[in-house]
Automatic annotation (TrEMBL), chain A:
Domain of life: Eukaryota
Gene3D superfamilies cross-referenced by the UniProt entry: Ribosomal protein L14
Similarity remark: Belongs to the universal ribosomal protein uL14 family.
Alphabetic keyword roster: Ribonucleoprotein, Ribosomal protein, RNA-binding, rRNA-binding
Protein name (database record): 50S ribosomal protein L14, chloroplastic
InterPro entries tied to this protein: Ribosomal_uL14, Ribosomal_uL14_bac-type, Ribosomal_uL14_CS, Ribosomal_uL14_sf
């Protein structure tokens, strides 16, 4: 249940460390985003000497949420933090390794 | 050690009583997961039931058929019998084999095809195939050719199961997942950037989030920070 102003960790080696969600891509007026949704985010904290800088607006896909994901076979998946992976306009990841 | 015993039985037709007697004998010899730590009688009864069902099913048994069915019964696993059934039904015709993939990639003239066997450190795939396309159109074409090959394999079937595709819109990196074989079609810049061979040849990616899954299944009692006392469960 990621909404705007949510801080997320970054789960790849693209250079960003923390993101803040601004908007959820998809239908207009959507309240919450879950695992697999694309969000627009601003970089709040970045690693030094990386191609991404602080306060840069990028897109990201959510990979971990504290809110549980329910599957049709009854399986429930819940993580301990919220995390996202930085992607570009086409959907390809900006980093090379997923952590 | 069991084979000559079975060969001797295949020639004659024993009565059910004789079968029960013979069923009891090779118990300590035959490996069966059921027999670990259980008495002979416990194992003999389901095995006898399995034997009896197979005996009655075979109306005019040839010796080879008896041989096969008894061998299945004696190995103690009606459960290997079921698992082989499941495998044959779930082996999908639409999934591509590694040789077929190589042929298709040769036809499409993909550059620099590399096959990486990852069966040891990866349980959801056996082979990773990485191929390069000369342009985005070429990369899309590689993906289309593989899907076309899968469609051709299932020509005339009622339901078609196609390998799943990711990344078809932008032509930079397309992944085709067909069961045990996963094909990555990239263009040259993407291939140099993502460096998939290093990722899959140097062992598994270090941090698998399996630990998170184990933690996630633990039931945690919520902390009661409010002043109100928590209600007792019935």
């Amino acid at each position: 249940m990621i909404q705007s102003q949510t801080h997320l960790n970054v789960a790849d080696n693209s250079g960003a460390r923390e993101l803040m969600c601004i908007r959820i891509i998809g239908t207009s007026n959507r309240r919450y985003a879950h695992i697999g949704d694309v969000i627009v985010a601003v970089i709040k904290e970045a690693a030094p000497n990386s191609p991404l800088e602080r306060s840069e607006v990028i897109r990201a896909v959510i990979v971990r949420t504290c809110k549980e994901l329910k599957r049709d076979n009854g399986m429930i998946i819940r993580y301990d933090d919220n995390a996202a992976v930085v992607i570009d306009q086409e959907g390809n990841p900006k980093g090379t390794r997923i952590l | 050690m069991i084979a000559p015993y079975l060969a001797r039985q295949a020639t004659t037709f024993p009565s059910p009583a004789q079968m029960y007697y013979r069923c009891n004998l090779p118990q300590p010899l035959a490996y069966s997961p059921l027999s670990l730590g259980s008495t002979v009688s416990n194992v003999a009864i389901p095995m006898l039931a399995a034997l009896r069902s197979r005996f009655f099913l075979s109306t005019s048994p040839s010796s080879s058929f008896i041989h096969r069915s008894w061998k299945l019964g004696f190995s103690g696993s009606s459960h290997t019998f079921f698992s082989s059934n499941v495998e044959s039904s779930s082996s999908n015709k639409g999934l591509l084999d590694i040789n077929e993939v190589e042929n298709v990639l040769k036809d499409v003239r993909a550059d620099d095809v590399k096959v990486i066997p990852v069966g040891k450190h990866c349980d959801w795939a056996d082979y990773m195939v990485v191929a390069t396309g000369r342009s985005t159109w070429h990369v899309k074409n590689i993906a289309q050719a593989l899907i076309y090959k899968a469609k051709e394999k299932q020509r005339g079937a009622q339901r078609m199961m196609l390998p799943s595709l990711e990344g078809q819109e932008g032509g930079k990196w397309i992944v085709i997942d067909s069961g045990k074989v996963i094909i990555h079609a990239l263009d040259e810049k993407a291939r140099a950037y993502y460096n998939l061979e290093d990722l899959w040849t140097s062992g598994m990616p270090p941090k698998e989030p399996v630990q998170d899954l184990e933690k996630a299944f633990v039931k945690i009692r919520p902390k009661n920070n409010s002043k109100r006392r928590a209600e007792r469960h019935a």
